[in-house]
Every structure is written in C-alpha cells, then in structure tokens.
C-alpha cells in the first residue's frame, strides 16, 4: 500500500528496455536503459539536423556567395562613384582657383599698366603745369598724382589692410585682394572671388575718375590759356594794336573732339601745349607794348591833348600825360625795348626814349637822374631814372609820351588796356 502511494506521488517508474536478438540457435539480449535511448535519439537528431544544415549550406552556398559579392561590388562602385565625385569637385575647385588666380593676375597687370600710364601722364603734365602761371599755376595742386608703381611680384604676395579712399594707396588695395582667393572650400572661394571682383570694380572706377579728372583739368587749363590769350589780344585791340595770335592763315577751328579714346589724353595734352605756347607768344608780344604805368600809384596832373600852357597861359597841345610825384621817385619802363636816347633833350630836360619795335616808342622826360645808357636793352617795369623837374617844367613830375611811327598818341588808351590785361598776366 505504501508502494502504491509513492507511485502516485512521484509518477510511474519507467522500466529499462530489453532487446533480444535471435539468430538460429543463438539468442542474445541486452538491456537499454531509458537515458541511453534518449541520448542516442538526441545524437541521431543532432546528426540529422547537422546533415540537413550542411546539405542546405552546400546547396545555397553559391547563392550566398554571389549575393555577398554583389553587395560588396555595389559598395565598391558606390565608394568609387563618391571618390570620383570628390575628385571632380576637387578638380573643379582647383580649376576655379587657378582661373580666379589667373584672372586676378590679369586684373592686377591691367591696373598696374593703367597706374603706370597715370604716372607717365603726370610726368608729361609737370612741365606743362610749370609753364602756366596765375590761376593755371594754382590748378596744378588739384591734379591727381598717381603713386609710384610697385613691383608685380610684391603685389601678388603682399597683403596690406589699407582702405580704398579715391586712389590713395591703390597698390595696397590691389595687393590686398589676392589672398582672398586662397580659401580651400568652394563656397569660400566663390565668396572671396566675388569680393575681389567688387574690389577691382571700385579700383577701376577710382582710376577712371582720376583719368577723367586729369582730362577735365587739362581741358580747364587749355580753356583758360585760350581765354587769356584772347582777352589780352582784345584789350590791345582797344588801344589800336592788332595782335596776331596764330600764324596759320588756314582759317579753320573748333573744339577738340578726339576721334579715338586711346588718343584722348595725348590729344588734350597736345592741345594744352598749343594753348600755352599761344599764351606765351601773346605775353611775349605784350611785353613790347607800353601797357604798364611808368609811375604806379602817382596822381595824373595833366592829360593828353589841348590844354592851357603852364608857363605862357595860352592854349597849347600837350603831347603826353604828366604824373605828379616827389623828386627822386622811380620811373619805370612801360615795356621792354632798346634805349635810343638817354640825356638832355631841349624842353624835355633829362629824357629817356625807348624803342619797343612795331613803330612804338616811349619818352620819359623832366627826370632828375637817368639810370640807363643809350643802346641798353631794358625789360618792362625796369627803373630807368628818377623823377625831377628838369627842362621846361614847373615842378617835380614825369612827362610820359607814346609815339607810333613818329606821331604822338594818347597814353590813356594803353593804360586802360593794361588794366584789362593785368588780371591775365
């Protein structure tokens, strides 16, 4: 009974299996325990499963290897495509940088050439400006002066930080723009190139402004020279002197309009040279006409024409004009010329007569002292003597005459012309 209770609690007990093998009269038997049977079954099952797996692997190995190789090939192609794209991008960036660098060097060369041209222009303008006077002389200070041309190699390597202000330090601006193209990334290179292009646009605009300003000043100087020459000629014409300005009788003219922009500056420079030569010729001729005052700042005591004779009190013709001045005051030549008389001459007292050419002569009489000699060349405004009261005179004064081809003319006409041309000399 106790055995039955134990069996209900722990389950039914498995008995070992007995295997009997009969062969003829021989009978064999052996007992197989349950755990041995389970172990054998497990081994057989494992073997069967391994066999199936091995068979499956052998059957599917080619497909698996093909799929793996295909996947690796796809990955390789993908990497190669990426590498090719990167190489193309690098080549594009390198090509762009090389192109930008070449363009930059070309622009720098162009700017340096233009700057050299500006320097050469200034060198040519210098002598012309030195020949000018008055307002023209002052205009020299306003003509832009390009700075010295730098070495191109230094321009491509330097990197100054100067700021563009008109054309001041243009070379520093040119050289400072080159490092902008040294970025390694494409976007940075493009941005740098854009900044450099904008910078060069500003520099070109500044250079064009300077060129235009130079030409504008040249035109102003030319116009001023022509105006002065014409004004002097017109003033002398009011005194009865016809001054020939140009020697060419072709009777042609008009404003200068160059046909080619490349010769624009040269044409205007030559035009300025012609105008200054014309003004110089007019001034040279003007110096031979008695348009200055022989006794500046002195009061006129008697004019040209009929008057009451100071000694006789009867009407008489006065062949000149008198300047009242203290004894010993200087007497100045009213134009350049040659002294043809220097000494005592009848009622003139101590007198100097100067031949100015073109039939014009001037006389300075009643002087207390003569400071020049006959045959001497004198320039305009040179002191030739001292005021006195020699000869037929009632007191210290200067008797001044102008004669044309031996006939006396009114000196006032020349003095008025002198006042007009004074501001143009």
Features:
single chain, 425 residues, alpha+beta, Glucose Permease (Domain IIA), 10-stranded antiparallel sheet, 8 helices, 50% helix, rod-shaped
How is this structure best summarized?
With 425 residues, this protein is an alpha+beta fold. It has helices spanning 2-10, 34-131, 135-138, 152-157, 170-176, 186-238, 264-286, 411-422; strands at residues 17-23, 26-32, 299-302, 305-308, 315-318, 321-324, 330-332, 337-344, 350-357, 360-370, 377-378, 383-387, 397-404, 407-409. It contains 8 helices and 14 strands.
Low-confidence stretches: 1-7, 134-185
What structural class results from the helix and strand content?
alpha+beta
Radius of gyration: 58 Å
Give me the strand/helix succession: HEEHHHHHHEEEEEEEEEEEEH
Strand content: 15-25%
Number of strands: 14
Q: What is the mean pLDDT?
A: 76
Number of helices: 8
Largest pleated sheet: 10 strands, antiparallel
Between the first and last Cα atoms, what is the distance in angstroms? 161 Å
| Helix percentage | 40-55%
What overall form do the CA principal axes indicate? Answer: rod-shaped
């Amino acid at each position: 009974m106790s055995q039955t209770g134990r069996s209900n609690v722990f389950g039914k007990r498995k008995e070992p299996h007995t295997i009997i093998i009969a062969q003829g009269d021989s009978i064999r038997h052996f007992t197989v325990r349950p755990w041995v049977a389970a172990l054998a079954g497990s081994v057989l099952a494992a073997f069967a499963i391994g066999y199936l797996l091995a068979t499956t692997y052998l059957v599917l190995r080619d497909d698996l290897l093909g799929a793996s190789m295909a996947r690796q090939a796809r990955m390789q192609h993908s990497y190669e495509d990426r590498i090719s794209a990167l190489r193309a991008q690098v080549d594009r960036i390198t090509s762009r940088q090389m192109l930008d660098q070449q363009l930059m060097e070309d622009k720098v060369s162009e700017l340096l050439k233009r700057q050299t041209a500006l320097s050469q222009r200034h060198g040519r303008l210098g002598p012309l400006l030195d020949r000018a006077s008055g307002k023209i002389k002052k205009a020299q200070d306003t003509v832009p002066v390009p700075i010295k041309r730098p070495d191109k190699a230094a321009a491509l390597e330097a990197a100054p930080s100067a700021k563009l202000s008109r054309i001041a330090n243009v070379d520093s601006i040119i050289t400072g723009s080159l490092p902008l193209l040294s970025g390694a990334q494409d976007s940075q290179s493009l941005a740098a190139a854009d900044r450099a292009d904008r910078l060069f646009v500003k520099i070109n605009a500044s250079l064009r402004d300077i060129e235009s300003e130079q030409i504008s000043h040249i035109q102003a100087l030319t116009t001023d020279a022509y105006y002065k020459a014409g004004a002097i000629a017109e003033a002398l014409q009011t005194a009865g002197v016809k001054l020939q300005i140009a020697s060419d009788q072709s009777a042609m003219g008009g404003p200068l309009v160059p046909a080619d922009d490349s010769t624009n500056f040269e044409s205007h420079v030559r035009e300025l040279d012609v105008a200054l030569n014309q003004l110089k010729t007019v001034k040279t001729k003007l110096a031979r006409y008695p348009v200055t005052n022989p006794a500046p700042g002195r009061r006129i005591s008697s004019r040209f024409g009929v008057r009451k004779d100071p000694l006789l009190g009867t009407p008489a013709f006065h062949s000149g004009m008198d300047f009242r001045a203290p004894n010993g005051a200087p007497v100045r030549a009213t134009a350049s010329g040659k002294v043809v008389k220097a000494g005592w001459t009848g009622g003139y007292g101590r007198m100097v007569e100067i031949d100015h050419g073109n039939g014009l002569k001037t006389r300075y009489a009643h002087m207390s002292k003569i400071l020049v000699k006959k045959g001497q060349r004198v320039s305009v405004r040179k002191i030739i003597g001292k005021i006195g009261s020699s000869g037929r005179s009632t007191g210290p004064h200067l008797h001044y005459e102008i004669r044309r081809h031996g006939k006396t003319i009114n000196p006032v006409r020349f003095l008025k012309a002198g006042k007009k041309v004074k501001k143009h000399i």
